[in-house]
């Protein structure tokens, strides 16, 4: 089994976010890579203005904070 490249991971993140906004944990399972990798790539995509990362203080179901990620208008125009 070969490892995914950084570009493949970023493309997968953008594809998933085009469907709907997700938390970092949801992206972890949908992209099939670990949390730290997802977070690092999301921070890089945020730096370039393709996504927006928001800290949500309380989840309605369990009361825990989580991080939500969605595409910006620039990110929506990308073709992956």
Give a verbal description of the structure.
The protein is an alpha+beta fold and 80 residues long. The protein has one domain: Arc Repressor Mutant, subunit A (Orthogonal Bundle). Helix content is 49%, strand content 18%. It has four helices and three strands, in the order αβααββα. The chain has helices at residues 6-19, 24-31, 35-47, 73-76; strands spanning 22-23, 51-56, 66-71. A three-stranded antiparallel beta sheet has the order 1-3-2. The chain starts with 5 loop residues before the first helix and ends with a helix. The model has no long low-confidence stretch (mean pLDDT 93).
Overall pLDDT level: 93
Rg estimate, integer Å: 12 Å
CATH class type: Mainly Alpha
CATH architecture: Orthogonal Bundle
Give the helix/strand class: alpha+beta
Poorly predicted residue ranges: none
How many strands, which pairing sense, and closed or not: the largest β-sheet?
3 strands, antiparallel
User: Helix and strand string, N-terminal first?
Assistant: HEHHEEH
Q: Quick one: CATH superfamily?
A: Winged helix-like DNA-binding domain superfamily/Winged helix DNA-binding domain
- CATH fold type: Arc Repressor Mutant, subunit A
| Order of strands across the main sheet | 1-3-2
What is the number of strand segments? 3
Query: Portion of residues in helices?
Result: 40-55%
Shape: globular
Give the helix tally.
Answer: 4
- Total number of distinct structural domains: 1
